[in-house]
């Protein structure tokens, strides 16, 4: 594949992810108010670790790039994670959790596989791998966040301030699709193996599904 096939690779990654149906049981239960508040505290604690890790991963990726479009893409994503981290405090506060509680929360290994893999790719992978992985998975993640915001409002009495973290991620950043596709194209033009780039997207998706499965483990 050459640089002109980047949109095709994006479409293929999304197709490969979509053909493996995933039932998000956490959100299914949240939609009907059946997730205990203790598990919402798990969600806040895990996200505190994930967002902080992803912020550093994107900053590292930006520092490894010689210039645009990759450095601009990852700097923007790092800044977005910083905004999200601040918004997460409001969700935690609605659950009666302080920042100290979030710092002291003991994360579950399976829930942290996603940021661990992203950090690995940030340190040892390529910009195209991470750009494609984010492109292929962001729409699904955004849909989950939109569902979470609505369910928390409807069944847990949370106001808009408390769910702003989820609203933030429900929509892709402006220009993200074009920027990320350009990064994928640059990687392919430089000779990157498209199969390796696709593999990163598949693995990141698998680790994300593992995150949600971990949160619902043991619930009926």
Automatic annotation (TrEMBL):
The record ties this protein, via InterPro entries, to: Haem_Oase-like_multi-hlx, Thiaminase-2/PQQC
Report the residue ranges that make up the Thiaminase-2/PQQC domain in this protein: 26-153
- In which domain of life is the source organism classified? Bacteria
Q: Where is the signal peptide?
A: none
UniProt xrefs under Pfam families: TENA_THI-4 (PF03070)
Q: In which pathway does it act?
A: Cofactor biosynthesis; thiamine diphosphate biosynthesis
Q: What is the designated name of this protein? A: Thiaminase-2/PQQC domain-containing protein
């Amino acid at each position: 594949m050459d640089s002109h096939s980047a949109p095709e690779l994006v479409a293929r990654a999304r197709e490969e992810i979509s053909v493996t149906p995933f039932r998000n049981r956490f959100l299914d239960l949240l939609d009907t108010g059946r997730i205990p508040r203790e598990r919402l505290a798990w969600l806040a604690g895990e996200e505190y670790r994930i967002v902080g890790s992803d912020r550093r991963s994107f900053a590292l990726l930006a520092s490894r790039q010689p210039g645009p479009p990759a450095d601009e893409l990852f700097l923007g994503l790092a800044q977005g994670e910083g905004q999200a981290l601040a918004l997460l405090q409001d969700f935690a506060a609605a659950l009666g959790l302080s920042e100290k509680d979030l710092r002291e929360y003991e994360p579950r290994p399976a829930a942290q596989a996603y940021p661990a893999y992203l950090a690995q790719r940030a340190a040892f992978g390529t910009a195209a791998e991470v750009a494609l992985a984010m492109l292929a998975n962001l729409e699904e993640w955004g849909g989950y966040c939109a569902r979470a915001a609505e369910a928390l409002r409807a069944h847990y009495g949370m106001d808009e301030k408390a769910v702003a973290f989820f609203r933030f991620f429900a929509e892709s950043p402006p220009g993200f699709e074009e920027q990320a596709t350009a990064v994928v194209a640059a990687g392919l033009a430089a000779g990157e193996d498209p199969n390796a780039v696709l593999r990163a997207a598949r693995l990141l998706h698998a680790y994300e599904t593992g995150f949600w499965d971990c949160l619902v483990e043991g619930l009926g």
